[in-house]
Amino acid sequence: MAYAGIDYGLGQSNIDTANGIRYGVISQNSIMPECTDEFEQDYGKPTCPECGNECADTTPESRHWESYSEHGCADYVCMTCEHTLDSSEVFSDESLGFSYDAQGYRLTNCLDFDIFVIKSPYYTFAQFCSPCVPGAGNLDNPMPDGVKTYCLGHDWFDESRAPYPVYSVETGEQVNPE
After folding, report:
1. Model-level pTM?
2. Total domain count for the chain?
């Protein structure tokens, strides 16, 4: 019997309280690179390059449209400096992270280069990822006696085969590669 590790989350962190399944963590290097093409990049909140304060949206749907619509096609306005700014001026050039919310999955970035599986139609059993992500399961270290952990399905991996057994959250049945 292998050692599952320590639950530094004490059963309170990184767990879906509705069903007791732990969130999963897996390296981006473990999946097919093309899977990340669908990730939505996060460039942070729009901030003024002059003062650093958050900028307000000036699109017709925003509450600031009437006040700043006469300034042309500016996308944002700094309410402190009253500068109107284009979107290229208010966002970082580098992505701060990513998210994915489709096909029953909810994923986000974790640590430097990992994927945090917050929701999935699938689970497996894995070692604890603690102490880096207290209470979560490390999908790069699956183990039969580990904790029940949300995981990615077979189609996220080369040859459409996950490196761990995959089970359906809905039925509890093992899902075999196609």
Report:
1. 0.79
2. 2
